[in-house]
Amino acid sequence: MxxxxxxxxxxxxxxxxxxxxxxALSSRLGxxxxxxxxxxxxxxxxxxxxGIPLQDEDRWPWLQEIRTWMTAQANAxxxxxxxxxxxxxxxxQLLSEAEGRVVFLHLDGGADLISQRMLGRxxxxxxxxxxxSQLATLEPLSQEELDAGSLRLDISQSPDQLVAAVVQALQLxxxxxxxxx
Length: 181
What we know:
This protein is about 45% helix and about 15% strand. It is of the alpha/beta class and about 180 residues long.
């Protein structure tokens, strides 16, 4: 069976495990992987490093760059795994405009667990002090989004358990020819 190019957008607040799950899915499926943080302009990174929350006007150009990358990958016949906070439904709607099938995987968990994870990270520009603003901005997946195939995942599960759940729920094929990120 031939599958259309698919984009798995691993979403959630900072510290929820997006990078870990995306890397594990990419490895399992053989799909290109990208970090949304790599698409941020320097001004956004500077703001976040200083503990200043991003506003929508900061996010729209960033999200458009991500959508453009996703479309280019789909047009090349490549499926992808991408980390992106995608905190608001409007952000997810913009990303859904990319060519190919777009599926959101919301890593959901308690603020205490996420905060502990953030405190254990080294070398990341997002300080734990921004977690409350991310949680306040977060619009969980709607029933409509869940009905369309997106998934809410419990971050208390291991990465292996999450990968198995995603592959099974979405009936994803492994071993697609690798594409360049």
